[in-house]
Amino acid sequence: MDHAEIRELVGLVTGFMLRNAEERDFWEKSVALTGILAWNDPAAVDAAGRWIDRAVATQNSDGNLNYADAADGLPGHIKTFTPTAPLTSSLAHPLLRYYQRTGNSAYLEAAELQMQALMATKRTSNGGFWSRGEGPELWIDMVYLMAPFLVLYGQIKDDPRYLDEAVLQHRAAVERLVDPFTGLTRHAWCEVPNHYPQSTFWARGNGWLIAVTVDLLETMGEHPARDFIAGTGLRTIRKMAEYQDRSGFFRHILDGPGSKKEASATLIYAYAVAKAVRLGLLDDGWLDSAWRAFRVVAGSVRPDGMVPGVAVPPGGPGVPFAWAPFGQGFFLLAAHELLGLAGGE
């Protein structure tokens, strides 16, 4: 698969996402928005901007963006889920990117309301924001979904407290969720009663951690926590690599030999490794592993641009496989990083 074919797939994957977005896919669309902004195709950026407009138009009275409603009867290990602001903050990062592009004051006002909601969220004993209303709980995905917003908001407002908060949230999650023996992360920790509702090493859960690692290190600048963030994330990348299948895929449960091969975690790995190489965190020898991950998923993309083989939310064992907006988004992000390194973007 050459670079021209990959760029053609990027167009197909983008088109599928734009045609099939649902309003209630609010947090899932955040990754798709980030991927679309990375490629910077004017027509796609304009079309996706309508998602941002709708997110602002449907912002709740409490400041949460876009349909932050409870969900019952989910598949997998989460039966009831009342979203908290870490989840709804996922849309606020691309919202601020659109603010930077347009200067639209309504976008900044919406981000300010979302930040108020985030900072008012209940906390666990170590300072982490509750990941659902049924908490106190921490979920590893929430760090990826809220930390970039905290950092960018702090930069726009010239207020370092928000970077410090992003660091605190990262450390709180790592402290409770990353296994000290392997460096791999579990999905969720419940403080009361103290247990792991889903304790396996879920591939996409580890993907969230390595993705936020490279994103934070790219944007946060100098901070005393840089070495901790880098060390934690790179340890997870190296341990994940041990479980990469010969095909290039990762299995839904990383160390489960009978678990299905899963596309979104495979794409996140390709993205995070490629960005880590670009940032000088890993050497070029890692690119073969990243390309194998990307190409095996690229080979499965359907003619209409759907990226199949994604474990649907809430993740963890027992969920069906289909497509999801974040799968589309991480395809775009991985392609952008890899082609950029190869001089083909």
Would you kindly provide a written description of the structure presented here, covering whatever features stand out?
It is globular, with a radius of gyration of 18 Å. Helices cover 56% and strands 6% of the residues. It has one domain (3-342): Alpha/alpha barrel (Glycosyltransferase), CATH 1.50.10. With 345 residues, it is mostly helical.
Layout of secondary structure:
Layout: H1 3-20, H2 26-39, H3 42-57, E1 71-72, E2 80-81, H4 85-88, H5 92-102, H6 105-119, E3 137-139, H7 140-157, H8 161-177, E4 188-190, E5 195-198, H9 203-219, H10 226-241, E6 250-251, E7 261-262, H11 263-278, H12 287-298, E8 310-311, E9 321-322, H13 325-342
Antiparallel strand pairs: 1-2, 3-4, 4-5, 6-7, 8-9
Helix pairs in contact: 1-13, 2-3, 2-5, 2-13, 5-6, 5-7, 7-8, 7-9, 9-10, 9-11, 11-12, 11-13, 12-13
What brief labels describe this structure?
two-stranded antiparallel ribbon; Glycosyltransferase; mainly alpha; three-stranded antiparallel β-sheet; 345 residues
Number of continuous helical runs:
13
> What shape does the CA trace take?
globular
Strand order of the largest sheet: 3-4-5
Oligomer: single chain
Give the integer mean of the pLDDT values.
94
What name does the CATH topology carry? Answer: Glycosyltransferase
Largest sheet: 3 strands, antiparallel
Strand residue percentage: 5-15%
